[in-house]
Amino acid sequence: MTTPNQTMPPSAGAISTCQPPSLFHGGYLLLDPGAFRATEELTPLHGRVCVPTNWSGDLTGLPMLIDLRQCGERQVQWLESIVGEEYEAQQLEPLSRPRICAHLKAPVPVDALASHLANQMLVLPIDKTRNRSGQGALWRFFDPRVFANLCWLLNPDQLAVLLAPVSTWAFPWFGNWFAIDMAANGGSTLDEIPQERIAGFTPIEIDLWARAQRIALVNQVLARLALPRDLSWAQRAAQAMRIEPDLAAMLTPEDYDRLAQRHAMITEPLPPADTSNTRTLGT
């Protein structure tokens, strides 16, 4: 088994532990409307749903971007109360579906940011010859349970394409908040990033897509390990990097149990994997 100092995520130097964001300082808040009890709660915020270009499906599963500068004091207080509630709840249930996905800083208008994030959600697997290798999918990469792992799964150039105009992306993961500084990670502007599209989809290499589909299982195993809550992102990500290759042939919950036992002598059964962050599209 690989030792921790042999498995250092490439973006480790750009990601730091931080406090839950203070929303009165502005920026953008990325929400998951489907995680709220009633979407009517969000109507007064006048948020911008991130809808991909030429999207003809319903809005289920799509995130909402809130420009905090356009919110009133009471609205910001309400949003901050949700951040606080979720911070406490995730101490006990770290893999519960979050309402607050991220706090972003970006030097672009809300429409430009929402449009970029929306179009990154439509992905099409391709093979090494750049030919289509599967169906298009709606990829909820913005979910922090996914995003936290993409920060080690993707290399800095791939992250730069995914996030483009974002300068700082702060996200919760396993009861802590972390922030990636895209300037320290070699970030770029929208104009500097080539936006390759195939029939309206962002291409993604099939091998990378297959690995991304194991992220939910990586989280399930991490949740069963007796890891200290105050681990840095790099420490937890290094553990995830060691787990992920072993999941390629996993088929049953019993397999995941055995993997967890092998990594940290945990014997309790794993809960079912959450597969809600991708949806196959007819293309």
Topology summary:
Blueprint: E1 15-18, E2 28-31, E3 48-49, E4 64-67, H1 73-89, E5 100-105, H2 110-120, E6 122-126, E7 137-139, H3 144-153, H4 156-163, E8 168-173, E9 176-181, E10 202-205, H5 206-212, H6 215-224, H7 233-243, H8 253-264, E11 278-280
Parallel strand pairs: 6-10
Antiparallel strand pairs: 1-9, 2-4, 2-5, 3-4, 5-8, 6-7, 7-11, 8-9
Helix pairs in contact: 3-7, 6-7, 6-8
Share of residues in helices: 25-40%
What integer value in Å does the Rg equal?
A: 18 Å
Number of strands: 11
Largest beta-sheet details: 7 strands, antiparallel
What amount of the residues lies in strands? 15-25%
Number of helices: 8
Strand/helix succession: EEEEHEHEEHHEEEHHHHE
Q: Can I get a quick summary?
A:
With 283 residues, this protein is an alpha+beta fold. 30% of the residues lie in helices and 17% in strands. The strands form two sheets. A seven-stranded antiparallel sheet has the order 1-9-8-5-2-4-3, with helices on both faces. The chain has a four-stranded mixed sheet with strand order 10-6-7-11.
